Request: fold
Amino acid sequence: MGKLSGRDNRATVNLLAFDTSTETLFVGLAWMAGGQARLALHASEGGREASSTLIPSVQTVLAQAGLGLSDLNAIAFGRGPGSFTGLRTACAVAQGLALGANLPVLPVDTLMALAEDARQRHGCTEVLAALDARMGEVYACAYRFEQGLWHAQGEVSLGAPEALVLPLGFVLASNVQAAYAGRLPAPALPAQPTADALLRLAPALLAAGQAQPADQALPLYVRDKVAQTTAEREALKAALATATATATATATATAATATATATTSAASPSSGQDAPGLGATAGRKPDAPGLAHPTGGPR
Reply:
């Protein structure tokens, strides 16, 4: 399903965000148009489907906005913890798109994104965020929202739902209520690491210098995993190749259009006056907003 909104208050630069750490694929785009902030959101089946549907979903939201990859300032993605295959897919696609378009990437902790989703949906500011880790376990971390920023209250943990300790005054928010209802320390508020949450977190993280060159982005793993299966390796290789090709094709098309325009202008007879043009250099990105430095999540 998709959603395109008219105005939004979180975009002062053009940002693409996606998360494939759970069974739901989340993609979002925040951008400026006509001096107003805009937002497009998409959610669909994730899991094993994400490696083949993530790039088409990205293309869908970009088309809704009438933007290309070269119009973006950065690409944010959920870095983990979460599904191993999902994290690898998100990282590979973020790297491929960013490398082809010469953009930085912004890895965001999925548990912090889940806490932000809980704040937006339920109004809570002290959250024990928990995410299904499969194998009868959950990933968890406690966060406190103060002065507009989330502060991690410890490291990410991995263990049985019964082992979760809910700090005094905190609420539990997670995507595991249905699976582990009888094993949790308290009823859990529903929350997910959505693209909307990533986009809300991104401006402060960018202002804090958390963006990275594309080739340095890595997933956050908490649990060791056996070697990738052949199918996983092939799926991720294909996702990276497609992402790189998509970004490269977009950049090539943009350059060709600019060259054709310049050639036409040069061939036109002069009127004795300067031709009207844009004051900004093509492809130049606006400065990121100066927002407060977040503490970030556990590393």
Notes: Residues 230-267 form the longest helix (38 residues). The two ends are 32 Å apart (CA to CA).
